[in-house]
């Protein structure tokens, strides 16, 4: 038995591969294009491990996917590969449409051809799991209940629109062709190997470098936060016991305004890595808001809890402490990802290098 993972060198995908091989000897074929967000250093601890087969390639490459499916005969595909950063989607949506929509379409078509030719238990047991986001549901008002799986889709950014499109394709491939798919829509993840363009790792790395901590707008936008290994365990639970054709919302019951997240990080850094210039709070800088910025996301995770018995293992307090400690212990990893291309991004987005 083998599983095929796409995007397994990115933030969540690499945590998933590491987690999977910590708990199982079932090999993983890891297909990743290694865009700016893909980093093989995340998988350094698997060097020489025959259970991990890394293939650099694009999910839009049908011939490559066909040949990987024919060679490795996976029992499941877990699809993480995507362009994932909202701000980048605002500056340049093209790559989001290509990877998130065309790439998912290509993968679904290859998977359908492969699955159609399977027989018996191999056919009934096959799964295509699509990893998606809570952003497809749009923005909540302060008084709205959290998103359930039946909320209407109201994506507001090029990123969330492209993910919504991919969710619809996955749904249609089940409805029309009977493909055995499952989908999970998760809230904001954080933890090790998170690329420092996203809020939490950006704040940690900027603070340690003595750079401004850019807060968009009034900093009162709310997200639900989930430690990344809890997302991995939710995906494993869906793969193992999720009902075919179903969608599962995944979240940490952890709604918090951005400014509170940043102040929590500052308090931890002041404790664990105090600066000679005083509290890192001096670096907080309010900047121009993100265009079309969604005000609030919140997840109702009762379905996955009820049906699959899944619960997050970390609270925000334990998860954020582990995360800050990881970044303090892995300064070399951060320095390594801060490539020339990343510095160009900082210049474009924040006018800094
Ligand atoms: P990421 O940007 O860190 O990683 C994406 C990975 O996909 C990278 O390794 C990249 O090289 C790879 N990739 C991109 N385009 C590719 C292509 N055309 N072919 C093959 N590989 C390609 O993203 P992430 O934060 O790890 O997110 C993973 C998935 O989870 C995405 O589908 C995202 O929408 C979803 N998600 C993310 C979050 C979050 O908080 N980060 C929350 C919910 C859902
Ligand atoms: O909700 C799930 C989504 O979470 C995933 O689908 C996305 O892939 C992932 O990137 C994340 O999207 P967000 O836009 O919520 O994450 P980001 O880290 O970019 O921003 C979190 C919040 O912090 C958001 O309200 C914008 C704000 N922010 C972000 C940055 C980078 C700032 O205030 N300043 C910043 O510099």
Automatic annotation (TrEMBL):
Signal peptide: none
SUPFAM superfamilies for the chain: NAD(P)-binding Rossmann-fold domains (SSF51735)
Cofactor: NAD(+)
First-tier enzyme category under EC: lyase
Gene Ontology molecular function: dTDP-glucose 4,6-dehydratase activity
EC number(s) reported in the record: 4.2.1.46
Family designation: Belongs to the NAD(P)-dependent epimerase/dehydratase family. dTDP-glucose dehydratase subfamily.
Protein name per UniProt: dTDP-glucose 4,6-dehydratase
Lineage of the species this protein comes from: Bacteria, Pseudomonadati, Pseudomonadota, Betaproteobacteria, Rhodocyclales
